[in-house]
Structure formats: structure tokens, C-alpha cells
Amino acid sequence: MEETHDLLVEIGTEELPPKPLQVLSEAFKKGLEDQLRKHELGFSWIEPFATPRRLGLLVRELATRQPDQEIVRKGPALQVAFDTQGQPTRAASGFARSCGVSVKELQQEETSKGAWLVFRQVQQGRNTMDLIVDMTAKALEALPIPKRMRWGEQDDEFVRPVHWVTIVFGEDPVEGRLFSINAGRLTRGHRFQAPVALPIPSASQYAEILRTQGKVEPSFSTRREMIRNQVQALAEDASGQAIMEDDLLDEVTALCEWPYAIMGAFDEGFLEMPSEVLIETMQKHQKYFPLVSSNGRLLPHFITISNIQSRDPAQIRAGNERVIRPRFSDAAFFLEQDLKQPLQAFEPKLEKVIFQERLGTLAEKSARLGRISGQIASLLGIDQGLAIRAAQLAKCDLVTQMVLEFPGLQGTIGRYYAWKAGENPCVVSAMEQQYLPRRAGDELPQSDCGLVLSIADRLDTLVGIFAIGQRPTGVRDPYALRRAAIGLLRILIETPLSLDLREILNFSSETLKDKVDTKGIVAEVFEYCMERLKGYYLDQNIRADIVDSVLAVNPTVPSDIHRRILAVEDFRSLPEAAALTAANKRIRNILRKHSESIPERIDTNLLQDDAERRLEARITSLASGISPFLKTQDYKGILKMLSELHNDIDTFFDKVMVMTEQSDLRRNRLTLLRDTEALFLKVADISFLKSEFHKQD
After folding, report:
1. Are 535 and 549 within 8 A, CB to CB?
2. Cα Rg of the chain (Å, integer)
């Protein structure tokens, strides 16, 4: 049975940046895993550890050595390896010499292609202990660190200066150097509660020693759950519920090694301000968890996470309460100053803020949004005046003192100020809803003005940025165009809205003609959106070939595309689907191979076989039968009706020679096939569907 040991690798550093900590931890795990597989070292699983001062991995049941490998080198064919007297030729001798053996030590191998000289050698596997440091170094080099630091007099680089390296395999420390530091079995505990070096007797004891002796919880996921449980318990004691957004919970977890939750309070007078302002201040500036009542009203309490279990928590509580008061007071001052004038009064300041150097200022962008919004509102039967007014005010809050201080409140402050200024409710809601959806799975705008403004904003950004040649690459998307495209598609599909994407892209293109060259940009952005559409449906477990089959018929209304995709997905579950897909592939191939002109109409007098006459009658009947379904976009109904054709198409191919030498018959039969295919193309090109069909994928 293969011998195994656990392996511990820990890199001790100065405080790591909190936001990318999880990414670094997962990348370290994957990097070492890749190295282990590359070196053919078996293991059970890898447990990652990540705290502000360390990245660690515990590899369970790692093989102590590589398996032996047989190396086989193929030499010359026997017919050229020996002469007529059976003596080795220069080819055989040269091959043997390159292998470090004599010709007599070579073997012969018979294959279906002939006989050859071969050299076989068993290469002994290396001890894992000898490979660990090099594999760890390569895993660390591959970490996604955009900017590495250097420290001291060495040339080593890492995300933060490294202070210790701990590598233990089983019960033995691993010798070697990383970052100019000798690896050993010593780790370090909490900076304040256990600032001592801690020996690790065996790799498997690492986590427990840190917890019991070092006052460090090394597991990110365990520490995160500790924080969640402590916060929930304190919130319940205050008869409230904590707002625990995942991003903040992750960041707070990355900021501490031994979390201890403490409840704080603030003056209830601050609750007169918009709750979003207080929540933003607590979450973004102080990393606090706000509390709300059962009906969602903000409570005058917060919960902070200390990185130390203090003997006097009251001192920490008092310190945090002292800090939050001036923060709230500053916010109240900014709010008071901004509200001395209506939201529209900030509009002139937009002329001094650049949206993008070649696309102009925020004032110019707002003007474009007004034109686009007016046209979209007209198509949707929405009040154009309100839509244009919303566009006029949309970016005004970006130059207020509140948003300059709290950028995360853009839109929210605009809504509040528009309400204070007595704007129409539709306009008020649009100030915040223009940014929806902000992320995957986020809610969509609900108000008419919000829908129109959200669409217009995304159109202007997509068309404008593409027009200046800043299309996203695999790693760079500084203007978040992927998110803009997906958000636009979601609004059009999920609302749903019967807007033609090409048409509304043209609206945006027209507004930019005096700034940039927009020739060909509409087609480019439309194609980009269709590429994003495939990802949108893959996230819903809808196969790419289904999407391709619909896009092949060039529909341009996303909500209509959605209905077609659902219809084709439903069609795939029909028992006739496989046969009809194969038939459509055959029809497509025949039509592609023969470029001769095909008559516009079938000549019924040239139909000779019963099979072709029946097929012609069936498609003529179905052509009129599906007409009402087309008007109501009932594509499922259409494909259900067309599924009845499978026997007639199969019989036609069995009985009728399409490519007969009689040109008039051949061309008439090609017309029949073209008209048959055309019925399916009213929904999708099902020849794109793959041949594997299952009731449930």
C-alpha cells in the first residue's frame, strides 16, 4: 500500500490586502494542486487556510514518492538497423549510443507498421520531500498578483513582505528556501494575543495548534461562519436583524484572525437622515454591520468585529462610537449643503466633468440620454416628457457633495434629492433605477422612466465605447461593457419589452455621429450582445446549440429570441425531434451543394411520386396553418405542428431521387426541399441542433 503523509505549507506575511485574499487563497490551492498532478503525486484533498498574515495549504494523504515510470524510446526500423550479415548499422549503433547502452541491450518491437529497435528503461520516482519547495515556489509564482512588492536587499517579490515559511511533511520539516527565508516548522500566533513562535510537530496538528495556542482561526470559511453567528446572536439580543452583505462579510473575515463581535450605538437623531446614507457610512467606511428592526427600519445600533478578544470590550465599543459620530455629522453637513438647491441646479456642473475624453462631458452624455430616452419612450407608449426629464437629471447627483464623498450612493441620493425637489414620482424612481441591474441576479428597473433610462444609459455606453475602439478583451473591461450588455438583454427579455435591439442601437449611434465615427458600430455591438446572450442562457442550463439555432435566422428582438429559444428547447424533448433534426441537416446539405437556380414556386404538374405529392400538400397546408401562431409568436405551437412532418419527410427521402438527371424534376424537388426548410426557419434553423436528444439533459 502506498505510503502517504500530510503536507503543510504556510507563507507568513505582513497584512495581506483583504479584498483579494480569498482569490489568492484559491489560486494558491489550485497552483499547488496543478503541480502535484504534473508530478504525478497522488493525494486525497487540499484544505486552504487564509488570514491577514498567512496563506496556507494542508494536503491530505500525499504520496511520499512519485511512481516509477517506464521510458520507451523508439529507434530505427529493423530493416535499416542491421545489414545483410546481421551486423548493426551506423543507425543502430548511434541509437544505442544515445541511450547509453550497447546494441545488444536494445529490444525489438513488432507493430502493425513494422518492426523497430526500442530502448526501455525504468525511471525511479523521486521522493516527494525533494520536490515540495520547487512545487510551492511555482504555485506562488502563478498567483494573480497585479503588483508585486520588493523588500529589504533581496530581489524577492510578493504581494506583501514575507516573514516566515513553514513547510512540514508528516512530522518532518522540509529543508529549502523561499523568499530568501529558510523553511522550518515554526509558525506564529496572533500578533497581539499570542505573539510567539509556535512549533508544528506534524502537519495535521497545524490548525488545532493555531486555534488553541495561537489565538488564530486559520480557516477562512470557519472564521466567516464564526463572525456570522456572533453578529446574529448580538442582533437578536437587540431585537433586530443584521444587514450582512456577502462582500462585507468576506472583507471583515479577511481583516481578522480571531474575531470578536461588539455591539455599539449612535445618537437616534441621526436616524432623521436617509437610512441609505447611514448604512453606506457604516458598511463602506467603518466595516460595521448595521441593524434593522423586523419591519426594516434602521436601528441606532451597529456591530463591529474586533481582531482581539479584549478584557475590556467597553473600551473598544466606546472607541468605535466616538469614530462613527463625526462620520455621521459630516454626512449630515453634506446633505444639508446639497439640499439648499434643487437637483436640477447641479446640472451646469456636469459640463466640467469628463465622461470619456473622446465622448465628451457628463452634460453631453445627459443630452444623448434625453434623445435616446425620448425615442424609446415613444416606441413603448411611455410619456416622452417624463422620460426626457429623467435623463436630464440622471447624472446631476454625481456632482453633489454627498456622492463625491460617498460614491456608492449614486442614484440613491439622486432619488432622494429629486423627491425633495418635488419631481414626478416616475422621474424620482428613475434616478436610482437607471443603475439596475447592478450585478448578476440583481432586480430590474420597475418604473417606466427607470426602464427607459436604464436602457438608454447602457446603449450610450456600449455604442460610444465601441466607437472609440475600446472593446473589452479577455482580461480588460474598464467600462464594464459585459455587465452593460447583459443588463440590457435582461431588461429586454425579462420585463419583457418588444424592442428591436438593432433599432435602438441605431438611436444611440445617431446621437454620437458628431463626436465619433459610428460606421459599422451598430453591427459590431449587436454581435457582441449576441455573444453575451449565449452566456446568459448557459447560466440557465440552456444549450449553446439551441441558442445558435435561433440566432441563425437573424432575429433582432431579444424578447422574441427568448420565446424562440424556449420553443426549441421544448421541441428537443419531442420524440420526432431527432429525426426532424437529421432531415433538416440533410436538406441543408443538399441545398448548399447545389447552387443552380431554384424556381420561386413548386410546379405541381412535375410532382410524379406519391411521396413528393404528399409532402407538397402537407407543407402547403402547414404554411397557412401556422400563420395565426406566427402573429401571436407561439413558436412552441408552430414546432409542435411541424413535428407532424417527420414521416412525410422520411418517406420522401426513401422514395424520391432528388438529384435526378432530369433538370426540371431536380429543380422542382429542390424547391420542395427549400419550402420545407423554410417552414422551420420561421422559428429556428434546427439543423444546428446536436444529435444527442434526451428527455431531461
Report:
1. no
2. 35
The answer for residues whose C-beta is within 8 angstroms of residue 517's C-beta and 6 or more apart is 467
- Name the pTM for this structure: 0.81
| Letter string b/e over residues 511-541, b meaning 16 or more CB atoms within 10 A of that residue's CB | bbeebbebeebbebbbebbbebbbebbeeee
Segment 130-135 shows an average pLDDT of 96
More confident of the two residues 57 and 594: 57
Mean pLDDT of the chain: 94
First to last CA, the chain: 40
Spell 267-301 as b/e; 16+ CB within 10 A means b. eeebeebbebbbbbbbbeebebbbbbeeeeebbeb
Q: What cell does 391 get?
A: 435623463
Half-sphere exposure (CA, 13 Å, Cβ side) for 5? 19
Report cis status (omega within 30 of 0) of the bond before 259. Answer: no
Taking alpha carbons only, the member of 8, 11, 7 closest to residue 164 is 11
Looking at the predicted structure, is the pLDDT value of residue 497 above 90? Answer: yes
431 vs 443: CA distance, rounded Å: 15
Does the pLDDT value for residue 695 go beyond 70? no
**Mean pLDDT score, 274-281:** 96
d(CA 29, CA 57): 7
